[in-house]
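Q: I'm a student working through a structural biology exercise. My instructor gave each of us a protein and asked us to get a predicted structure, then write a short paragraph describing it. Mine is Glycine/D-amino acid oxidase. I'm not confident about reading structure output yet, so if you can add a plain explanation after the tokens, that would really help. Here is the sequence I was given:
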Amino acid sequence: MPHKDYPASYYAATSNQTVSRPALADHHQVDVCVIGAGYTGLSTALFLLEKGFSVTVLEAVKVGFGASGRNGGQIVNSYSRDLDSIERSVSEPAAKLIGEMAFEGGRIIRDRVARYNIRCDLKDGGVFAAFNKKQMHHLEAQKALWERYGYQHLELLDQHDIQQVVASDRYAGGMLDKQGGHIHPLNLALGEATAIESLGGIIYENSPAIRVERGEQPVVHTPDGSIRARFVVVAGNAYLGGLIPELAAKSMPCGTQVIATEPLDEELARSLLPQDYCVEDCNYLLDYYRLSADKSLIYGGGVVYGARDPADVTSIIRPKMLKTFPQLANVKVDYAWTGNFLLTLSRLPQVGRLGSNIYYSQGCSGHGVTYTHVAGKVIAEALSGQAERFDAFASLPHYPFPGGQRFQAPLSALGAMYYSLRDRIGF
Ligand SMILES: Cc1cc2nc3c(=O)[nH]c(=O)nc-3n(C[C@H](O)[C@H](O)[C@H](O)COP(=O)(O)OP(=O)(O)OC[C@H]3O[C@@H](n4cnc5c(N)ncnc54)[C@H](O)[C@@H]3O)c2cc1C
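A: Happy to help. First, here is the predicted structure for Glycine/D-amino acid oxidase. I'll explain a few features afterward.
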């Protein structure tokens, strides 16, 4: 049965508003039709509306139904692969532009929150936690790399320092990004949707795009209607399915799981994360966690290649949480859910055009809260005739998954097992 509503997550249970938007039931013409109301689609729509375009967003289920309404809520700068691998992949001028944009997404989010008065519990400060010396050296190199791009908000933490910000004895050290941070992700998406509507944009829910008729004026069809547009922006990411076969062939949906505890006693919560920073560790298959506004611990980790939903998320994630915080042994888990992100072989985003008027961005491979906001901005710039930054992203190489779609999941799982083994034995 097709989904009609949000999964039973902590975020759905604590969302600001549950406005129901109508499904598309007739035929319209606009400047831009956006497919998907996650951060990529919402950010694109908002930037386009601010530039004076008419915009319609088609969402298969509800605003923020995908990763954008289910994620760890961590504002992490840069990309899933860092700037050194981007420098090796594209020309020097493109690498410079992409490097400068690595720190723009957090600023866009903060600007949006302030400008449109979005209530999403925004907090500053994110920590990368290292288990061993090798990971500490990696963080030192990352700091030097980011500073080369002018980013000056990082502070290395030794073993003593990290224990002042995370009450866990697992870590050898870490790095604080003062302009990292965290948000209630679904409330950010809902706030952005309201901002879109305040500027005259229209969002249809329960309106999956089922066919895109390409041509001079592409037409996007839903079960009961259609939108003819000058431009189409495809922003369905891991939930797009086979709508655009070229995009499905070079990416793979993967699941990652999250739990939320019952709200913790104020003192216990403060003892775990005294400065209320969010944390992600430095493993390839990483754990990520933070406190919510009502002091639930939101803890995520684990990857399912091919995005099958595991039967019992709590039994996968709770042991990870207790390994980090054994002091939570008697704490109840109130919510457990899974969400899909889109993996690419390079773990870098795929951005481009199909013909002259269908634009897409997908595949931020696990770190997308900031990138998707930048993607919206550069797509809007490109549609307004300034494509330099869009073209820099578009020059990142795209690779098909070896073995085609059939072997995507087993081969990637094999690769992940290798990296996970490396993490465990620390080499
Ligand atoms: C559990 C989890 C935790 C994560 N944690 C973090 C984190 O802490 N920090 C971080 O930086 N990143 C994190 N990520 C990644 C981040 O959430 C994503 O990169 C980002 O939200 C992707 O946004 P998007 O708009 O591209 O895709 P999505 O948010 O998935 O949105 C796509 C939307 O398109 C809709 N759609 C699909 N097909 C169609 C169609 N045919 N017609 C109409 N609509 C369609 C879907 O219903 C969906 O609403 C996490 C991801 C997951 C799954």
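A: Here are two points you could use in your paragraph. The CA atoms of residues 72 and 300 lie 7 Å apart. The longest helix spans residues 404-425. It's a good idea to check both against the output above yourself.
Q: Great, thank you!
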